[in-house]
Amino acid sequence: AHPRLGAGRDEQPEDDETDNMARGTILHRLLLGRGADIEAVEPKTKDGRPSFSWSTADAKATRARIIKEGRIPVLAHKLRKYELAANVIEANLSAAGIEIDRQESETVAVWEERSSHGPVLCRGMLDNWNERTATIYDPKFTDDASPSACVRRICQMGYTMQAAAYTSAIERLIPPLAGRVNFVFLFCEPTAPYAVTPVTLSGEF
Hints:
The protein is about 35% helix and about 25% strand. By secondary structure, the protein is an alpha/beta fold. The strands form two sheets. The protein has a five-stranded mixed β-sheet with strand order 3-4-5-6-7. Strand 1, helix 2 and strand 2 (about 70-75) form a beta-alpha-beta unit. Helix 1 (about 15-30) packs across helix 3. It is globular, with a radius of gyration of 20 Å.
C-alpha cells in the first residue's frame, strides 16, 4: 500500500498549499488532543453543488474568517482523511509500545540555563510528556519516515538542539530525573500505510 511501491498514484495532489502546510498542525491536534481548534467546511458552487476546493469567493471568505478567529479551516473531505490517518498512526504507535496520554500534551516548561553571562530564562512547549516513564514524545509528520530520511531531517532541521534543550529543561525542573530523561522523536507518515518510526538520538548525535 505504500506510495513508493506504486500505490496511490491516481490520488489527487493537495489542491491548496495552505491546506498542505496546515496538515501537520491538524494531525498534531488530532493525535495529541491539544492545539488550535479545527473547523470543517463544505463549500458549495454557485449552483449549490458540493465543491471540494477553496476556489469560490464564498469559500475563500469563510476560510479567511476562520483563520482570523484563530481556528484552522479544513475542507471536510480532507478532515476525514486526516482523522483516518491519526487513528491508524495512533494504532501503529500503540503496536510499537507507545501510548500518548492526551492529558500530558503541550506541557509548557520554563527554566533557567547557566551561561558565562549569568542565567538565561528559557521557555518551551513539550508535545507530550510522560512523567511515569520520564519520556518526552515529539511527533514529526513527514512524507518519508524511513530511518535514513529521519536521520537526514534531524540534521537538516537542527532537531538535536530541541532534544538537548527539552531534556535539560526536565532535568533542571525535576532534578531526581537527571540522566534518566528519554527524548523520542515520532516520525509519522500522514498517508497510507501511515508508517511510524520512533527515533532516540545516539550519544554521537
